[in-house]
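Quick start: load a record and inspect it. Here is Multifunctional fusion protein:
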Amino acid sequence: MNNNFNPDKQHTLQSAVSISGTGLHTGVNVDMTLKPAHPGFGFQFQRIDLPGQPVIKADCDLVTDTSRGTTLQEGDTKVCTVEHILAALVGMGVDNCLIELNGPEIPIADGSSAPFVEIIEEAGVLEQDAAKVWYSIDTNITHYDELKRVEMTALPATDYKITTLIDFNSPVLGTQHAGLKSMRDFKEEIAPCRTFCFLHELEMLLQHNLIKGGDVNNAIVIVDKPVTPEVMERLSKVFNKKNIEVKNEGYLNNLELRFPNEPARHKTLDVVGDLALIGYPIKAHIIANRPGHSTNVDFARKIKQYIKKNKHVKDVPVYDPNLPPVYSLQQIEKTLPHRYPFLMVDKIIELTDKHIVGIKNVTYNEQFFTGHFPGNPVMPGVLQVEALAQTGGILCINSLPPGEYDTYFLKIDNCKFKQKVVPGDTMILKMELISPIRRGICEMRGTVYVGNKIATEADLMAQVVKR
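Running the structure step on this input writes:
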């Protein structure tokens, strides 16, 4: 990301780019191609080696295995070890990308995201003409796994940043922490950091033939116990290397560590990749204490559910009664034919060519409360829809040439009443055009908010007729 990178715009690749390599666990050689995608596409994997070339979305709800990496599966379509490529895409600011594969697993390369960052830079990152909608976490979200002693927390923040702490009770690793203060630092500070495992884990995986593509050059192997000559000889045969040895600081002969806390930094890389499966770009400070793929994905699901439950709050219009209205009551009466007691809009506070926001203050003195649930007054749902329709009428009439017009209902779809409206409530009436107005026909999506909660929503169709 250069200084001209706009984080509030969506981005894709300028061109397609490919890389080939072996899958760590399957040992299958795979060709992977990253392709540009349109705004809103997100990250999707396509298995071009399977009949029908099925596509699977990068979605935490589709994760079926986290034992040795993160695996996505839908039906018979499976893609393994997706975290490193997803981390590279997020870290380079890419929002939309089709990832084509002719095999079941992402190439492991050197065990980091650096090779993927290199090909993304080779392809180039392209700004798209579409806004990037960030979801700000406005409350603490915590996930705790007592069995694994893992704790993950998302704190409100103005940016997306991550702090990772690891403590595996290992004299070699000790206690480590790593921080990613800005995604702009991902390329230099996090991407080069390789995956790691302990020697005893490696032996178990080898015995069960679970790392068919393993090599001493695509992972850091931590030796946390004395190693017998027999073990060293067996490892030499498995990796087809003559001079396997334990170098200083308890690491199997491998490249020198790229950072003193490379394992903690790689855990940060995994968090970036796994949380990409939320499906929404977030602003939060993630604190991950002893994270792993299983808890990362569980945490991603928890954040996704929170966003889905609360994302309507992001669209709630802000009503400041101190500001002058765009349309006063007197101006509304000049536009609409409705009058007391059937005028359901008190003022308009926002108006563009595509949406409008009106206000209706509900009082106990409304005529309909006399006969509608006396003693327990509730505003009739049909009158809430009428208030939306009148607000939408102003939006439609405002877009037409000067003159006097009437609006008539043609259709109401998908109408839902989610919360009752009672005296003392202030209804915020939002209407948005679904499609351009043609021949006087208006299709609009309407929402009634009370505070930051949705009371009513419906899709309305009306016809505007000149008097």
